Amino acid sequence: MGLTVHQMLLGVHILFGLIWVGGILFVGWGVFPAVKKLDFSHQQQFLESLMGWTHRLLSLAGAAVIATGVLLGTAFGPIREWGTLWTTSYGIHFMLAFGLGILTLGWGAFVSYRYSMRVIRNRTLWSMAGRGYPMLLNRAMRRVTAVSGVEVLGFVSLLVAMLTF
Q: Count of domains in the chain?
């Protein structure tokens, strides 16, 4: 029994979803805590290069999730005309998931990433921490965690929307 195009596309959709969500969570909950073992100047250098590289990769993975989701709902799914989006349960869930996906990706790419990089590139915060005054850096990093947490809420909302189909 061969796989259908729909099944293969669904597998690709899930794979990119795992890369997107798993990558964000691994960086936030795995790498960031481990980096605290380094001295402040090495933390800054490492985080700046890590964020620059992972941002592109994870943003592309998020865009791929959204693109494959659109294909799964339209070309390889039940949505064949605009009216289906507003008059069926599937269409409403589809639009909700699409909106949440766009908002989550947009928040991560344009708000969370930019805010994180502004803190990471702030030489004054890092040099003061290196001289024994880490309070301002710690406060700024807590704000980074809060801003980035919105993206995690987006992932949870997307998961809930997808599981209620």
A: 1
Distance CA 22, CA 58 (A): 9
CB crowding 31-62: b at 16 or more within 10 Å, else e: ebeeeeeeebeebbeebeeebeebbeebbebb
- Tell me, what's the pLDDT at 164? 86
Map tokens 């989550």 to a residue: 104
* pTM for this model (two decimals): 0.92
Give tens-digit pLDDT for 28-66: 989 989 999 999 999 999 999 999 999 999 999 999 999
Q: Provide the domain limits for residue 65.
A: 5-163
